Amino acid sequence: xxxxxxxxxxxxxxxxxxxxxxxxxSSEEFLEExxxxxxxxxxxxxxxxxxxxxxxxxxxxxxxFETTLITHFHNQLLQKDxxxxxxxxxxxxxxLKVSNNGKITxxxxxxxxxxxxxxxxxxxxLQESVITLPLTQAALKRGIPVNTQFTLPLVxxxx
Length: 159
Known about the structure:
By secondary structure, the protein is α+β, with helices and mostly antiparallel strands. It has helices spanning 2-16, 27-37, 58-78, 113-118, 122-131, and strands spanning 88-98, 104-110, 139-141, 144-146, 148-158. It has a domain at 58-158. A three-stranded antiparallel sheet has the order 2-1-5, with helices on one face. The protein has a two-stranded antiparallel sheet with strand order 3-4. Helix 3 (58-78) packs across helix 5 (122-131). It starts with a helix and ends with a strand. The relative contact order is 0.17.
């Protein structure tokens, strides 16, 4: 009986050690796995204007950012003399870049050439509007400020 009990304890010690072994992975493998898990096309928090609360959920942050941009451009264009030689119904698409330090720049303005012919100062007015935007807090990815790019459509309608 003592021999059977001794064999049982010896068997338990011999087989249980494999359960305590942990697999070690190298730092390169760990980094590779982390890089695969990151969604590179998404940010953790959107750029933030002073009038938007930082505590908002991600979707609310995006909505506040876009609403602030649209309102700003709308108000700036209302101050201009928008006189065209004919009716306009067009969408002008602006591409805006928010740098990792919060500066907003206009990288592209796309639209119908007829619209720009009818409103020759439109591009200049939009560029001036970007300059007057308030500074933002940059978007964050894993706690690090990152560059982001947004496309903002502006619908122009005159009669």
